[in-house]
Amino acid sequence: MTHVARIDEGARTGARRRVDALAKPLGALGRLEDLAVWLAGVQGTSAPVPPREVSVVVFAGDHGVTGDGAVSAYPRAVTAAMVREFLRGGAAVNVLAGAHGARVRVVDLGVDDDLTDTPPEVRRHKVRRGSGAIQREDALTVDQALAGLAAGRAIADEEVDAGADLLVPGDMGIGNTTVAATLVGTVLGLDADQVVGWGTGVDDETWRHKRDVVAAALERARPYADDPVALLRSVGSADLAAGTGFLLRSAERGVPVLLDGVVSGACALLAERSAPGAVAWWCAGHRSTEPAHRAALASLGLAPLLDLELRLGEASGALTALPLLRTAALLLAGMTTLDSVAPPVPEQV
Ligand SMILES: O=C(O)c1ccc[n+]([C@@H]2O[C@H](COP(=O)([O-])O)[C@@H](O)[C@H]2O)c1
Ligand SMILES: Cc1cc2nc[nH]c2cc1C
After folding, report:
1. Reaction catalysed by this chain (predicted)?
2. Which of 4, 62, 94, 176 could be cross-linked to 112 through a Cys-Cys bond (beta carbons 3.0 to 4.6 Å apart)?
3. How far, in Å, is the centroid of ligand 1 from the Cα of 311?
């Protein structure tokens, strides 16, 4: 059972009042105004501060769905190679985190490589190597799905206990857009054509195969549409289970999250289904080119901050949006009020 923390409605009301009183026409800062009010609600103060301790967690795993004919433009071995690169510091997530003052943690939940050359910390939460081929078999056992969820919760706790005031989930895993599309399609009752995208940039023939794979996986998953744990077992993966647990724990601990692309969108959909109201703690950093991401955000009622046609994952969209969140807080804190600079607006006749 997840007990979702309450958003501070008083803080939201106070922030909205302050936003409306600032030295600008009413509503002129557009969605930055809503963002400042959201921050107030999740920080529990009508005077929110820019998030300072931003913790990015990249959940990594491989997917058995890549085994029977390509569903991705890249081979499975890229997952482990990118995990090593995240640790070396040359990936997009490293550059963006460095630019915007965020800490990056990489966690292997299911990479198909023992990664024994990486620090034990990276492998501490490993559930298994790879996952089942979801078009014909379960991705995980129930115990593995539960272990992934528990790992995500534990990781959120570790980050929050270390002082994080904003959590950012990222993902790395060749084939994971096939899994995310299947989860979103199942939960929302959509067909494969409506959720399958181009992922890393597949060609048309690979797209058609990917669509058939998702259609078969959707068939297997339909009976579990209302059961997030069974969904993760049948068509999920350990890394997506961990992403889901991470989001559930954020809502329990009352710590805000800046979501990234289609994988964190799929996890958010599952987490919201298992803990209605949790979505109040999450902000959509961006919308990727994946149709399943669009569908997930629409269903969650989340308007993305950015729509830059990104399709990288690894928290890159969320981190690109991070300065907007800080900007919103700075405007609210730093601007003076209209009544201090101008006489009261005359009554309209
Ligand atoms: O974030 C997204 O929406 C997104 C869209 C397309 C691709 N990706 C990334 O690319 C990988 C999955 O793509 P694919 O084609 O192998 O399923 C995985 O590592 C994701 O992080 C991510
Ligand atoms: C190179 C590469 C980097 C990535 N980062 C996240 N997903 C990725 C997929 C590929 C293929």
Report:
1. 5,6-dimethylbenzimidazole + nicotinate beta-D-ribonucleotide = alpha-ribazole 5'-phosphate + nicotinate + H(+)
2. 62
3. 6
